[in-house]
Amino acid sequence: MGRRKLVVGNWKMNGLRAHLPQVAAIGAEANTHASVEVGLCVPATLILSASEARGGAFIGGQDCHAQDSGAHTGCLSAAMLKEVGATWVIVGHSERRADQHETDADVAAKACAARAQGLKVILCVGESLDTRDAGAALPFVLSQLSASLPQAAAADWLSIAYEPVWCIGTGRIPTMDQISEMHGAIRAALVDAIGADGAHMRILYGGSVNAANAADVFALADVDGGLVGGASLKAESFGPIIAAAAAAG
Ligand SMILES: O=C(CO)COP(=O)(O)O
Questions:
Q1: Looking at the domain that runs over 6-68+75-248, which CATH code has it been given?
Q2: Which residues act catalytically here (predicted)?
Q3: Would you say 238 and 26 are in contact if contact means Cβ atoms under 8 Å apart?
């Protein structure tokens, strides 16, 4: 479908100014693989300096509030992220759904708020191990997707990340068949929900992506790239993942 591969690092609560050389090195890797869109979602404290060091990579935030401003101590609006250089933001990461009790409706509202500021959005979905073991992964993820999907969802500003919770930071990944099945089901659900544009929306896989498994994952039909945690913290581990996406075309 001509979908450009998208590979995004999620630094989570990692990174101080001392790590900015890694942003520059990853930005340089991005420049050598221009066929791939590369980004880094860094802690909010690093967005400004990372956006000055970013090279060919875009810089994003890891969450935003659904409101533009107000009495929400400790929260950041999409406008605030944008002002310091973010062009993308992740919403609905499973760690926020678990730790901050974010609901599907919260996630949809955050995505809309980001869109209103002109930010591009990665919306995360994924099942727990219990749900997977109960044989309910597919219906769970599809229902989470449908309830989290923002109004006016469109491929030019929204991407989906399938991140099974049991694969995040565990070194485990689903089988290639399981990833294919889920991405195919998400693709069909997107086309169902938003029409033909759903065929253009990028669907990323996330959860223990590394240099050893990236080529196999990125070769799957409906996998349009990855959302990478631990392996994105250093250019030496993220670079080969970017290269694998470039090779997968
Ligand atoms: O949660 C993730 C990215 O958002 C995945 O993290 P890991 O790549 O460290 O498993």
A1: 3.20.20.70
A2: 93 (electrophile), 163 (proton acceptor)
A3: yes
Instruction: Quickly tell me which residue has 């300096």 as its tokens.
Output: 49
- Please give the number of the atom of ligand 1 that sits closest to the Cα of 168: 10
Q: Hey, which of 168, 209, 237 would you mutate to test ligand 1's pocket, going by the most ligand atoms within 8 Å of its Cβ?
A: 168
CB 35 within 8 A of CB 249: yes
Tokens linked to 192: 């169902």
Over the stretch 132-179, which tens digit does the pLDDT of each residue have?
Answer: 999 999 999 999 999 999 999 999 999 999 999 999 999 999 999 999
ipTM over 0.90: yes
**For 240, what's the count of Cα atoms within 13 Å in the CB-facing half-sphere?**
11
The Cα 96–Cα 167 span in angstroms is: 16
Listed by start position, the domains of the chain span 6-68+75-248
Q: How far apart are CA 161 and CA 111, in angstroms?
A: 13
Write out pLDDT tens, residues 47-75. 999 999 999 999 999 999 999 999 999 99
* Cβ atoms within 10 Å, residue 177: 9
Q: Are 135 and 178 in contact (CB under 8 A)?
A: no
**What is the distance between the alpha carbons of residues 165 and 212, in angstroms, rounded to a whole number?**
20
Q: Any binding-site annotation on 85?
A: no
